[in-house]
Amino acid sequence: MSDFVIPAPPTVTVPVAGGGQFPVRRVYCIGRNYAAHAVEMGHDPDREPPFFFQKNPDDLNASGEFPYPRQTSDVHHEAEVAVFLKAGGTDIPLEKALDHVYGYALCLDMTRRDLQGTAKKMGRPWEIGKAFDASAPVGPIHTVDEVGHLTEGSITLKVNGELKQEGDLNQMIWKVPEMISYLSQYYTLAPGDVILSGTPAGVGAVVKGDVMELAVEGLGAMTVTVV
């Protein structure tokens, strides 16, 4: 008999290509990790120390649909790659960081840009603009054994067939091993943690009925419809 005083919430999972489910613990997101995107957001693209915010585990959404959220009129797409960890720890050495990676997946960091902008102006946290329901559409995870480690390759996002975002994974200011090592200095990382690796330039608004197609070399493509 369970000692829980209310029903326990279900474990959040993301499907793995080829079968199985990956249980999610935490979701970390790096901000302004492509120089061109930093510029378009009004910031200096020089290599400043990285910063992170978080989404909630159940913001990950593998349904293929993105429900347009409430209390906003300006929702932006941000094309990203999600990194899934199979091991954790603290103070992880840079040269050992990739040993902690289970696999990679296509992911979108959908953003209520108007609410994020208001929070920035008021010096408040961003979560109201970032960590809302179903705000991280995600594709199936491709294991390291299947695709290796993604250090370069094109990343693109089309909306209704029109190219909006285009970049290369080698343009990331902070690479995947650096993100893992840096985060482990401030948090105890663990199996089930997920890191969103930032977005290239070209972010923009979507409306209901739009169809977003995210593609990353080595991971294929996924289509997400705004509903």
TrEMBL record:
The keyword Hydrolase applies. Residues 27-227 form the Fumarylacetoacetase-like C-terminal domain. One of its GO terms (molecular function) is acetylpyruvate hydrolase activity. The keyword Hydrolase applies. Keywords: Hydrolase, Metal-binding. It holds the Pfam family FAA_hydrolase. SUPFAM superfamilies: FAH (SSF56529). PANTHER family: ACYLPYRUVASE, FLUTATHIONE S-TRANSFERASE. This is Fumarylacetoacetate hydrolase family protein. It comes from Thetidibacter halocola.
